[in-house]
Design goal:
heterodimer, A: about 150 residues, mainly beta, 2 domains, 6-stranded mixed sheet, 3-stranded parallel sheet, about 35% strand, elongated, B: about 150 residues, alpha+beta, 5-stranded mixed sheet, two-stranded antiparallel sheet
């Protein structure tokens, strides 16, 4: 939803602004969207699927965890990601992973030289640099991670 | 070893890269799936001393990258190559004979009888060396001289 602006009239009490009810209705709508929208920056999705194409809806979640080791070749299809958004994917399993997206044309580039290790827990981070549908750019990085309660 | 044709240039890898573009864990792919990415086995033909490998190419029938085997060119004549080969041969056998030279010298100096086994072994080395020399001299082409395998003593 596009932002709804409140018509406050030209000058105070000139009778050209909208009603208080209408104004607060717009205010509610605007806040509802913000509160709903914030989940895409805070919510985590646990995914039980372990092979094939897995859709990752970046409009609803920011963290995606494949809860079991992959059992077959997997395509992580990132959907609805917007410029500036970062998503994190937690995954393991000795399988091939293809990172894909729902843009018409995109470049998916790797940052750094980390490699996916199917025997370890892996953290794949994807940032959207450009969400132009015909020329989108995603950059991903991958690294293994382990539990470390006392990092040196 | 795997190879891939990248814009006309064939690049070889001792093992497939673990990451390829937007694909992670490429090392977990089957050979068939790797072919889908353009990765094929690299087959290196064996060569003799008179041969060398040419530029790598894709053999579409065998679905492998491989190399043509080409004959080396030699500036020397057949006679010169034989001479070189025989010199190497004689150096080889001379080193073996040298190992027991001290026994012969000691026995001559002290008037002792040399162990017959030693004498037989040395005689055999000389016979073998002469046989190889005859074989080398019987060769008629440069490649056959170069490819003649000397014994591993």
């Amino acid at each position: 939803m596009a932002q709804q602006s409140i018509n406050i009239g030209t000058t105070a009490n000139d009778g050209t602004g909208e009603t208080v009810r209408s104004a607060f209705d717009k205010t509610n709508d605007n806040f509802t969207e913000l509160y709903t929208d914030k989940t895409k920056f805070t919510a985590k999705q646990d995914i039980a699927t372990t092979s094939g194409t897995i859709n990752l809806d970046a409009s609803s979640y920011s963290i995606f965890e494949i809860t079991s080791a992959l059992t077959g070749a997997t395509t992580l299809n990132i959907q609805n990601i917007v410029k500036g958004q970062v998503i994190d994917i937690l995954v393991t399993g000795a399988q091939t992973i293809t990172i894909a997206d729902d843009f018409t044309t995109s470049a998916i580039n790797q940052a750094g030289s980390g490699v996916y290790d199917g025997a370890s827990s892996n953290h794949i981070q994807v940032v959207c640099i450009d969400d132009n549908d015909s020329d989108a750019i995603l950059i991903y990085s991958v690294a293994t991670y382990t539990s470390d309660t006392d990092p040196a | 070893m795997k190879g891939i044709n990248l814009n006309g240039t064939i690049k070889t890898y001792s093992s497939v890269p673990k990451t390829w573009g937007n694909i992670l864990g490429v090392n977990y792919m089957s050979d068939e799936d790797l072919k889908g990415l353009g990765f094929y086995d690299v087959v290196t033909p064996s060569t003799s001393a008179s041969q060398q490998l040419g530029d790598i190419f894709f053999d579409a029938d065998a679905e492998v990258f491989t190399y043509p085997v080409e004959s080396k060119t030699f500036d020397q004549t057949v006679a010169e190559l034989k001479e070189q080969k025989i010199k190497i041969l004689k150096d080889l056998y001379n080193r073996e004979l040298t190992k027991t030279d001290w026994i012969i010298i000691r026995d001559q100096e002290l008037g002792q009888t040399t162990d017959q086994t030693i004498l037989d072994d040395r005689a055999q080395l000389r016979t073998d060396c002469a046989t190889h020399e005859t074989n080398i001299n019987a060769k008629t082409t440069k490649a056959s001289v170069v490819d003649y395998e000397l014994p591993n003593l």
